[in-house]
Amino acid sequence: MLFRSITLDGIYTIGNPTNIVKGQSGFIALTQDGTGSRTVGWGTHWDFPASTPPTLSTGANSVDIVAYYARTTTSIAADAIIGIGPL
Fold it and tell me: What is the distance of C-alpha 20 from the center of its chain?
């Protein structure tokens, strides 16, 4: 299981991983900086419920978590836990 933490201080894109391993799983913590209102785009390998990426919290210092599981090397099942912070 992997854990990554990203502080959003601009517009981000979480692209398609080049080294994904089937069965890999983990979490990505996305924290807004002190300004907030930052956005995140997602590569085509990321599969969210209803094919819709989550609308992340935009408040300054807010925290969201994205949990994921690699079904294949080109399909990553993912969902978000929104608004768990600021911490």
Answer: 15
